Amino acid sequence: MSNLLVINSSLRSQGANSTALTENFLQQWRLQHPRDQIVQRDMATDPIPHLDEAMVGAFFTPADQRTDAQQALVKRSDDLVRELQEADVLVLGVPMYNFGIPSTLKAWIDHVARAGLTFTYTEQGPKGLLEGKTAYILAARGGRYQGTPMDTQSAYLRDVLGFIGITDVHFVYAEGLNMGEESFSEGVSGADSQINALLA
């Protein structure tokens, strides 16, 4: 039995293509792994706050010296880190906003990429501490960007996940979703085929 952590990062609480992609993935996953535990986070209904000076200051203050206010700030990040540490599989539903990831997903990354918890510094450079996990990136795009220089999402997510030790990363792309009905249908069916092939 595995633990799945699912992050839907769309800003839309209803009708998001990336969320529909995630739901389809989970439907297929449950058919094969009915006993797995699934934890879901929705950035539209429960957004992660962006880092600010107070949060960063709390992170770098020794735990036994933090004020109550700093403890409260760090607790949210600690809880997010714990969720990720306990997960065997990470699933990210990712729309493309202005050629990048949603800022709330970046905020989540900033909360979980923490020295001493998810990575550490060594004489050879940084080393990820979350080895042995698998990640699935479910990317929904209005245009077609896969394999082009305009797809900054894929390289960034692969790099940042590798930085914290998650190197088994798989991508599913639903593209051309805003380019007419036929393109939408092709994008969705293509993503379905990719999911089926990954989970076969």
From TrEMBL:
Residues 3-197 form the Flavodoxin-like fold domain. Coiled coil: none annotated. FMN binds at S10, M96, Y97, N98, F99. It holds the Pfam family Flavodoxin_2. Its EC number is 1.6.5.-, 1.7.1.17. Keywords: Flavoprotein, FMN, NAD, Oxidoreductase. InterPro entries: Flavodoxin_fold (IPR003680), Flavoprotein-like_sf (IPR029039), FMN-dep_NADH:Q_OxRdtase_AzoR1 (IPR050104), NADH:quinone_OxRdtase_FMN_depd (IPR023048). GO terms for molecular function: electron transfer activity; FMN binding; oxidoreductase activity, acting on NAD(P)H as acceptor; oxidoreductase activity, acting on NAD(P)H, quinone or similar compound as acceptor. It comes from the Bacteria. Binds 1 FMN per subunit. Belongs to the azoreductase type 1 family. Quinone reductase that provides resistance to thiol-specific stress caused by electrophilic quinones. Homodimer. This is FMN dependent NADH:quinone oxidoreductase. It comes from Aestuariirhabdus litorea.
